[in-house]
Amino acid sequence: MKTIQMALSLLYSIYSKNLYHKNIIFMFTSRSQCEKYSQRSDSRSVQCYFGSPTARYERENDTPLIVKNYNKEIFNADAKYMYEIMGKKAKCINNMTEWLGHTILEKHGLNLTEGTLRSQLGDMTTFGRIVSDSDGKINAQSVLLEGTIETNSGYTVTLNLNKVPKCSLFPGQVAVVQGNNPNCTTFIADKILTDTVLPLPEECPVLND
User: Fold this and answer.
1) Domain annotation covers residue 81
2) Distance between CA 54 and CA 33 in Å, rounded?
3) Locate the DNA polymerase alpha subunit B OB domain: which residues (predicted)?
4) Do residues 143 and 157 make contact, with C-beta atoms less than 8 angstroms apart?
5) Torsion region of 44: left, alpha or beta (phi above 0 gives left; psi -120 to 50 gives alpha)
């Protein structure tokens, strides 16, 4: 059923954009809705091809092809495309979380408690990134607070929300949390702050007519 819908959508886009070509051939078979996808008979088969599938092509001439660099910057032989180092990614997330965390603290006139969640017990004001401990949607029992290098040396703690009357959280959200740290592994939150006003640019944008 999905194959038929995809083919019809492709046909519609071809006709609507005047891209139809007589040599474009579609190959698909109809199947009942109750047929299991894993038991389909046309797995990995070509559904659309251009021209004759048995045609043979030969070169008309030996014109040399020269490829030039589009940009002046030339990549080295060991350059990696769509490749990122986890350490750099973690550092970027850490810097972003600390910047937003301090901005939220500044807006509400709060001070960050000295020490990390792993070394300090009792009432604290800290911040971190909301993450989920479950594979499904985040819920009140799966909320974790991922600390930064400054607040918890990058470790996570379970965030107990039983004393919070109302909150709206999502994974990746930066939040300032006030509450009690009884055992370095669970933080009992009394209040969660996530709103802030980011600083305006130093120079006003120039609008051209």
Assistant:
1) no
2) 33
3) 95-193
4) no
5) left
Output the domain CATH number for residue 110.
2.40.50.430
Q: DSSP assignment, residue 187? A: E
| CA end-to-end span of the chain | 51
Q: In this structure, what token pair is assigned to residue 151?
A: 């607040």
Residue 175 lies in a domain: yes
Q: Is residue 65 part of a domain?
A: no
pLDDT for the residue numbered 18: 44
Span 89-114, pLDDT tens digits: 888 899 999 999 999 999 889 898 88
7 with 105, same domain: the answer is: no
How far lies 206's CA from each of 109, 197, 201, 202, 203, in Å?
Answer: 33, 22, 12, 12, 9
DSSP string spanning 95-106? Answer: HHHHHHHHHHHH
C-alpha distances (whole Å) from 64 to each of 34, 43, 70 are: 55, 40, 19
**Partners of 174 in the beta sheet?**
129
> Based on the structure, what is the number of domains in the chain?
2
DSSP β-ladder status, 48-50 and 122-132: unpaired
- Tokens linked to 100: 């937003």
* pLDDT value of position 202: 74
C-alpha distances (whole Å) from 132 to each of 48, 109, 129, 158, 171 are: 42, 28, 10, 10, 6
33: domain range?
2-50
pLDDT-flagged residues of the chain (< 70): 1-35, 37, 69-81, 207-209
What is Dmax (Cα atoms) for the chain? 81
